[in-house]
Amino acid sequence: MRVLPALATLASLLLPTALAFQVEGVLVPSASLPDPLTIGPATRVLVDGGRQSTWLRQDGRFEIFVPVGTWLMEIESKDYIFPKYQIQVSADAEGRESVTTMTLVPGQQWDSTNAKIVKHPLEISPLVKMDFFTPRESFNILSMFASPYMLMMGVTVLMMFVMPKLQAGLDPEGKQELEAETSKMHKQMNSLQTPDFAASLANWMSPAPANPPKSQASSKRK
Fold first, then answer.
1. CA–CA separation, 162 vs 152, rounded Å?
2. How far from 200 is each of 15, 41, 190, 203, CA to CA, in Å?
3. CATH of the domain at 77
4. In what residue span(s) does the ER membrane protein complex subunit 7 beta-sandwich domain sit (predicted)?
5. What is the pLDDT along the chain (222 residues), one digit of tens a residue?
6. Closest CA to 120 of 168, 167, 66, 80
7. Where are the alpha helices (DSSP H) in 45-171?
8. Which helix (H) or strand (E) holds 88?
9. How many domains does the chain have?
């Protein structure tokens, strides 16, 4: 009685192999992967999102059994992006399987008529290598002086040395007008530190309103 369950288990293991086609492939050198042997062992071949899967061998080859039907095959790698493949396995009246393999470029529809048929066994190469490292920006002294805070500091230091010399050659009325303009400039520069930078800059660059014309006398002396 115990023989029947064992035979049923063995049949369930052998049945997918009997009704499947062995798809083979190998990594080939490319610009993004000159030496396929350096890709590392953590690379898998997935069919139908993982329904069937196998690991890439050290020599860059793989074999995977794909059942009759149309399936999507992907190469899962942490360092490279590979093209996807459409695998079509069919069987004739005598039970002999055949396979048709096509490449699917990123963004291409599953049923696209522009899919390119490739030969079997597959010769696979990655599309691009993923780079997660962002190089650190080098020091640039020009960018430091282009900072708004450095510009405000430079204007302040310049005013400290220039203002006394300007005031020395002015009359009292000119000094009063210059002090008013300086006070206005300081207020505008302090407002640059607020979030409304654009409005403050526009107010600073806008010309001062002209003085209103004096009204003429409505009557002349006789």
1. 15
2. 77, 59, 9, 5
3. 2.60.40
4. 37-152
5. 455 555 445 444 444 445 678 999 999 999 989 998 888 778 999 998 888 899 999 899 999 999 999 899 999 998 899 999 999 998 887 777 788 888 887 676 666 566 788 999 999 999 998 877 777 777 777 776 677 777 777 777 777 777 677 666 667 777 777 777 777 776 766 665 555 555 555 565 555 555 555 545 444 454
6. 66
7. 141-145, 148-168
8. strand 84-91
9. 2
Residue at 214 is within a domain: no
Domain that holds residue 198: 141-205
8 secondary structure, DSSP code: H
Q: How, if at all, do strands 20-27 and 97-104 pair?
A: unpaired
Length of the chain: 222
In the block, tokens 């190089």 appear at 135
In a shared domain, residues 107 and 31? yes
How much of the chain is in helix, strand and coil states, percent to nearest 5? Answer: 35, 25, 40
Structure-block tokens of residue 57:
């061998």
- Residue 212 domain flag: no
Shared domain for 117 and 63, answered yes or no, is: yes
Structural domain includes residue 219: no
